[in-house]
Specification:
2 copies of one chain form a homodimer. By secondary structure, chain A is of the alpha+beta class. Helices cover 45% and strands 22% of the residues of chain A. The first copy, chain A, binds a DNA duplex (30 and 30 nucleotides) through residues 164-165, 195-197, 205-209, 211-212, 214-215, 227-228.
Chain lengths: 247, 247
DNA sequence: CCCTGCCTTTGATCCAGGTCAACCCGGTTG
DNA sequence: CAACCGGGTTGACCTGGATCAAAGGCAGGG
């Protein structure tokens, strides 16, 4: 093998999977790692998976062995009870981790479904634990990610427990907006990847209620909606809905 | 110092704080640790804190440095938004951990309040991370605990998003019952440590609705309630409310 | 012992959001 | 092109739980 062939091979692999070369490394697990630490993480994250819209990344009941970092695309997670009722527990986008629910019992407790064609990096969990025993920064960052998920869930509980329909939708839109912004997209104009029904499930509302709330926001000049295309016209107005309403 | 003095001193310390001697060690962080590992955990868990009913263990906004294992007593955690609305995010009992919300930003995001006189073990988080880099079992168990919290939160989201008032209360009571049972108490008869208002906040209901649901359950012979004293008479009936109801 | 204050229960009324139903719109198929 | 189909919107009506109000325990303090 010539030197060039080696270089080419390395270059190929880097393009193929490396965290060290991923433009999400500031959003994702590698945050704060040194060059050589990053390389060791690269070794774990060797398998990618492509999913088409509608595909399951994993299902409730399946054995757990990896967590997944979203490289591109958009997901929802949901839980189901026997009688068929289900609840969307979250929407995940680029750079976010999926699968943390599986750690506790080594069995996934929810479904993760791609809402658009997506790509994820699979990170074998036991190996991640091994590496994070060696790299303090990685360990600490991983703990922060899990804790952030807990805090996020508390926010959703607050939303579901105390807010009225329009407040919920406003909170939802502001959250999406802020996350798009953090990824370099417009915070004001975006396409929803999920149906009214899925938004409703997440927010504890029926799809008709979600639709009506959208229409109301439009009437009030807070935003322009057409199907799944949303443009926020008055962020402050939306924000005021959240804080100010109620006694 | 005589040998006896040394022994006595050790015995004193063991009684005072050691995980190795704690009758909760099968419920709490030490699960699965070897004798010598346990000893090293003991060294971290040196500070105890006693709280009286109503005391805050920590408050939202305070800096985070330790997580807490409940040694005895009963807690609630809640989050608040500017306009004064608050949401109880959980009730914690013996052997459960508090403070995981603080890891993500190094600032606590919720309040933890004792609902009865209680005692907790403070575990400095950075030291816990250090030790769990050395003790694989401890690391893994800690990850499971965090993950379990996420799964629990998803359950609450399901409850808040899809269940009707009586289903919520049934789910709540069954959950409490099961947790008392796991601690060696009667699963059928217990004292609620929280007010109707706090139950309502947790379940996304008003206190009057909670009270009415209790009365209804009593009429239907599912349980006997008097103020905070609850006796479950028909567990299967309560369980059926959960699964069967609705289309 | 009574008083005070908090918690709980219960009744009467109201309303936000659920339910049911019709229609619309854009994309796809035969 | 028509027929179809899976969202999305909109209207009319209904209901579960919120709200408002009153009264009944129970615990703690003087």
């Amino acid at each position: 093998m010539t030197m060039n062939a080696v270089t080419a091979r390395l270059a190929f692999e880097v393009v193929k999977t490396a965290c060290s070369n991923c433009n999400l490394r500031e959003l994702c697990l590698p945050i704060g790692l040194e060059r050589d630490e990053l390389k060791r993480l690269d070794e774990l994250v060797s398998t990618r998976r492509r999913l088409k819209r509608g595909d399951h990344l994993y299902r409730a009941g399946q054995g757990f062995e990896s967590i997944y970092a979203i490289r591109s695309g958009f997901f929802k997670t949901d839980v189901m009870i026997e009688d068929g009722r289900d609840q969307v527990t979250g929407f995940q986008m680029t750079g976010e981790l999926l699968g943390l629910d599986g750690i506790s019992s080594e069995i996934h407790s929810c479904n993760a479904i791609a809402l658009e064609d997506s790509e994820v990096c699979a990170i074998p969990f036991l190996q991640l634990e091994g590496l994070s025993r060696q790299i303090h920064t990685l360990q600490h960052h991983f703990h922060k990610v899990m804790s952030r998920e807990i805090v996020r869930d508390h926010g959703v509980m607050m939303l579901l427990g105390t807010m009225r329909a329009e407040e919920r939708l406003a909170a939802f839109l502001l959250n999406l907006s802020q996350r798009f912004k953090a990824r370099g997209y417009s915070p004001a104009e975006f396409n929803l990847r999920m149906s009214r029904d899925e938004i409703g499930s997440y927010l504890g509302l029926k799809l008709e209620t979600v639709s009506r709330a959208f229409s109301r926001f439009q009437e009030e000049g807070l935003l322009a909606v057409h199907q799944r295309k949303v443009r926020i016209l008055n962020t402050a107005g939306l924000r005021k809905l959240l804080t100010h309403q109620r006694a």
